[in-house]
Structure formats: C-alpha cells, structure tokens
Amino acid sequence: MDIVIRPVTAGEHAELGEITAQAYLGDGLLDFGESDSYLGELRDVAKRAAAAEVLVAVEHGALLGGVTFVPGPGPMADIAERGEAEIRMLAVSGAHRGRGAGEALVRACVDRARALGRERMVLSTQRTMHAAHRVYERLGFTRNPARDWNPLPELDDITLVVYELTL
Predict the structure, then answer these.
(1) Residue 36 class from Cβ within 10 Å (0-12 exposed, 13-18 middle, 19+ buried)?
(2) 70 by DSSP, 3-state: which?
(3) Which partner for 85 in 10, 81, 111, 113 could form a disulfide, CB atoms 3.0-4.6 Å apart?
C-alpha cells in the first residue's frame, strides 16, 4: 500500500469536496438527497481548511479521500470538548474503498491528537455507516451512547451516534 496522508492543497479543495459529497450521496446519508443543505458543507473544503486541518489520502497521484481533523472546541467542532480532538467528514471515493484509505486517515487523526496532547478523540456517525463503525472499532474506539445527539432537533428521527477513543 502506497497511500500517503498529507494536508490538502488549495488546488484539491474542489475535488475533495466532490468526493465527500458523492460519498455521502452514494451511501444514502443525506436525508434530502441533492437538495440537502448539508451538501454545501460537505463540498466547502476551503471553509473547513480555514478553521481546522483537512487531510487527504493520496496514492500514485490519485486523491482517494479525506477527513477533517478538528483539534478541539471551535468553529468546526460538533461535539469536541476541552481535551478532545474530533474527526469530521471522513470520506473515501467509491472507486477507492476497501484499500485502507479510510483507516489510514483515521490513524493519522489519532496520531495528530496524541501529538497535541489530547486526552480523547471523538466523532459522530450515522447509525447506518456500518463500514466506518468497523474501522473505528478495529482501532479501539468505543460507543458512548450518553453523547449521542441530533443535529436537527426539529426532525426527531436524526440521531448521530458517538464514538470515542481514550488516547
């Protein structure tokens, strides 16, 4: 495996945004499909990169996917509290799945959190993201149902489940 994990470049923002958007759409993760307001957030890599660290997985010059590493509480954090780092918007293109890119991106985030002295790594995921859950569990993340939350309280059927890893 020759997958390299590195910071995204400005020239890759549009491509990574589209990979992320298509991964979420293709997996049926957006309740409102192409009209889902979250789609714009998924595509806006420049916004994420300005407020957090966006990492990409690259192999032989091909962009496989990416992740947003949030070093702690702040504008890109959904649930990170003091002493925690957060993983957001992990996505690997459909054509490149099953080769370890997603796991390599998660490992890079864990390593970055440890280097920053964080106590925990946290993330929110949808109940249906079973492949991602297997990656998180393989890397030692455990469920914390007490922190599950709903990003759209006006819709009572959207609950994100929380995983965490003590570092």
Answers:
(1) middle
(2) strand
(3) 113
Phi, psi of 146 (to 5 degrees): -65, -20
At 66, list the tokens: 């990416």
Residue 165, beta-bridge partner list: 121
Find residue 17's DSSP bridge partners: none
Q: Which value, in Å, is the radius of gyration of the alpha carbons in the chain? A: 15
This prediction's pTM: 0.93
State how far the Cα of 50 lies from the Cα of 133, in Å rounded to an integer.
Answer: 28
Dihedral-angle region of residue 61 (phi above 0 means left; psi in -120 to 50 means alpha; beta otherwise): left
What would the pLDDT profile of 96-143 be if each residue is shown by its tens digit? 998 999 999 999 999 999 999 999 999 999 888 888 899 999 999 999
CA dist list (Å): 18 to 22, 117, 140, 153:
6, 32, 30, 27
DSSP state of 139: T
Q: What pLDDT, in 10s, does the model give residues 15-62?
A: 999 999 999 888 877 766 787 778 889 999 999 999 999 999 999 999
Task: At 152, list the tokens.
Answer: 């759209």
Phi-psi region of 30 (alpha: psi -120 to 50; beta: other; left: phi over 0): beta
Which two tokens mark 29?
Answer: 């993760």
